[in-house]
Amino acid sequence: MSMENQAACKKVTLLQAVKAEANFHFLVEGVLDYGIFMLDLNGNIISWNKGAERIKGYSEQEIVGKHFSIFYTPVDVQNGKPMRLLKTAKEEGRVEDEGWRVRKDGSQFWADVIISTVRDDKGNAIGFSKITRDLTDRKRAEEELRLTNMRLREHAELLDLAHDTIIVRDEENRILLWNKGAEKMYGWTKNEALGQITHSFLKTEFPASQEAIDNQLNQSEWWEGELVHTTQDGRKITVESRQVLHRSADNHSYRILEINMDITERKKLDQMKTEFVSFASHQLKTPLAELRGFIEVMLDGQTGMVNEKQKKYLQSMEKISVNGLRLVSDLLNASRLDRGIVDIRLRSMKLREPALAAIRVYAEQAKGKKLLLDLREEDKNVRVAGDFEKTTEVIKNILDNAVKFTDQGSITVTIRSDDKQGIIEIADTGVGIGEDILRQLFTKELLLNDRTQFRGGSGLGLYIAKKFMELQKGNITVSSFLGKGTTFTLTLPKEDSSELAKP
């Protein structure tokens, strides 16, 4: 028998086997709900039914002879999924799979697929049958149900926050839900509050315009901030408010879930703490400065000869007084930041100016530890809009930490720029910073940790540095690895010559 006749016989045998396989699944070629077709051992399509045409969009003339991977997404094809399914079907007799498939027009549908190996009378594999069902509607319904259940669980969790005030209002700001927490905090009962216009009812005072808050809610579907409300007995209270907007399925209406917590007492305590820190710091600053002055006079020998033992004690006292003054300075700066009274004076300046000023302060300390303190200027002339004193303080703070926590190697200050900003990078080869500390490095919570505990420091320096940079419309970021060193990156906007005059 010729090769052509053998191939023809094999194809007839395969077609007959596929029809038997289809019958086994109680399907016939005319069924439209199932795509039933056959593949040769290489995965090429050799038969096609009406159901396959309806689901996938190809006519029999268009698809026969093509490889069945045409139905799979590019990612699945790249990952070898089509041939992997054939391999499994050949080894195990059949394989079932669900996933996204691609129609002729490029659209995707969720398919349930069964691929079965077709064998001849001798048990040799001669091809595959493939049965496909379009389950897109079921998949979408399942996903919608999952999201609905998730929202219901989230809402239930929120409503269970018994100690917080929970209010739900509609698009006209009318109160739809007023829980027990709201009754307790504001004084009005549910019956008195329902239907009221929220902001008129509570005489809301906004930190920004109400329009700006509403715009953020509409765009981001959430808002967080502080509001001032008036209670039934006329008291003004400050609340920490979290608001979430939930749209209806047709997108024509929405509800706003508002969770408020009374922080009035906490704000008063914070204010008292800030005022006390400011007062105490002012009281300590003068005597510490005088003490340092007296120590310097004694070290200079102006009060008589000082022996080596006395000199050692005086130097230790001087170091303590310097650390004390730095602590007082940090506390005063933190207090001013909390009260919003920091004076920022923007001017046009070369970015190298504050960098050089800070480097001069720490050059001797770096030299004393045999560290290379290097300045690299990729852009010597970049000018920025910044506060010289505040920027210098930030760089000094970072250099102070770099010298403390680098025992060998180098500290490199690099000045460069891009299209919009000047950039200072300060990289050291020190001990690095652990991830637990790195996460809170720029917060006030970092008051004591492994980096400050044994070498002095308030833990406020980097919090202040972050605030100082932000007040100048700049930024500060950090990257670090334990045992490899730390890199701080400072950015300031390039000068705007229309607003700033060069000094």
Summary tags:
alpha+beta, 16 strands
Explain this structure to me?
This protein has 503 residues and is α+β, with helices and mostly antiparallel strands. Helix content is 43%, strand content 24%. It contains 16 helices and 16 strands. The strands form 4 sheets. Strands 6-5-9-8-7 form a 5-stranded antiparallel sheet, sandwiched between helices. Strands 11-13-14-16-15 form a 5-stranded mixed sheet, with helices on one face. Strand 7 and strand 8 (236-247) form a beta hairpin. The radius of gyration is 37 Å and the shape is flat.
Compose a concise summary of this entry.
This protein is α+β, with helices and mostly antiparallel strands and 503 residues long.
The helicity comes to 40-55%
Task: Give Rg in angstroms.
Answer: 37 Å
Which word captures the global form?
flat
Largest sheet: 5 strands, antiparallel
What are the low-pLDDT stretches, counting only 5+ consecutive residues below 50? 21-28, 447-457, 497-503
Average pLDDT, all residues: 82
